[in-house]
Amino acid sequence: MFGLHNTLHDTLHDATNGTDAGEDAAHIPSVISLGQVWVDIMMDVDEMPAAGDFAIANDTRPVVGGSYRVLDAVARMGVPAEHAGIIGNGVWASMVRKAYEEAGIAHVGPSRLDADSGFRLVFHDQDGRKTFVAHYGAEAQGDETTFDALEPGAGDVVHISGNTMLDHTATGIDGFVARAGTDPKTRPYRLVINPTNTLKLVNDHLLEDLVLARPIWSCNRQEATTLADRLGVPIDEEAALTVGGGFDQAMNTLCDALGNALRAPLVVRAGSRGAWVREPGGAVEHIEGFPTKGVHTRSAGACHTGATCAMLAKGWSLADAVRIANAAASLAIQRNQGGVPICPSYDEAVALAGTVESGPQTA
After folding, report:
1. What is the value of pTM for the model shown?
2. Separation between Cα atoms, residue 257 and residue 295, nearest integer Å
3. Burial degree of 272 (CB within 10 A; 0-12, 13-18, 19+)
4. What range does the domain containing 164 cover?
């Protein structure tokens, strides 16, 4: 049982469509995420207990996770952030909605009244390993109609995360991608996909449709390697991943081969080394990162993806958007909360990136 879409979203789109402010009303580009949001219950343990055994958590804290981290980064970078996925009704859903209110994120998707949002137990041991136990909730109970009401406007950036491709909601993703078409030039908005490590579990039909849509792909190196493997892209394994230059060579080889197969823009993140970017038909460009001392226990990948999406919505080129995202991720891991990197403001990230003089491509 789904509730009505967020009233704010309806009002904004009415204004955009000219029903309140005329046909020429300016549309402010937003980042709209189709990803799933849940609550992570993070627990620090010395070591995971054996089956039937017992362990004590040194620290326990619930934090809103999933695509919320991407949207939080978008909002902190000064761009309207909207979530088009499903939120439930209950304890965990209330925590999600409160986090949205505090971060200025608009929920524009369906609300499920008969089920709570899900949660995950995240065990972090002294060796740095993470063990996950997930309980899926309303966020995973979509269908082929979940995103039918979504109509992105000019300049919007639509974000799709790999966490939405493994359950019933995946049919809604497939439906939206089919409407998006296979020619990025005919879309008034941009499509950004960041797969997760579960990419190997995505079914062939959906993966094929995602590739045919020719979105911007934003991956870490492991995800990019998995994607290349799924697509049967041969990668030169002789390029050793060494500090003495082999790593750079391997990243260039990976990005060139995968980007050529995708025929779409590709961003491959590599932590403090920054990211490698390839536009269709172009050469691979290495955009240096901003090394910093890591004091976080969660990845800054969501901050990087959110900042990239936000900068694209502001009109920056892909290369400059990634450069600013590199800076944002570096700052984020210096100011984490409970091990979760917190994205900085737009001004802070742009200042560190040193791109303030060039400015975005569009107003």
Report:
1. 0.87
2. 34
3. middle
4. 1-192+203-214
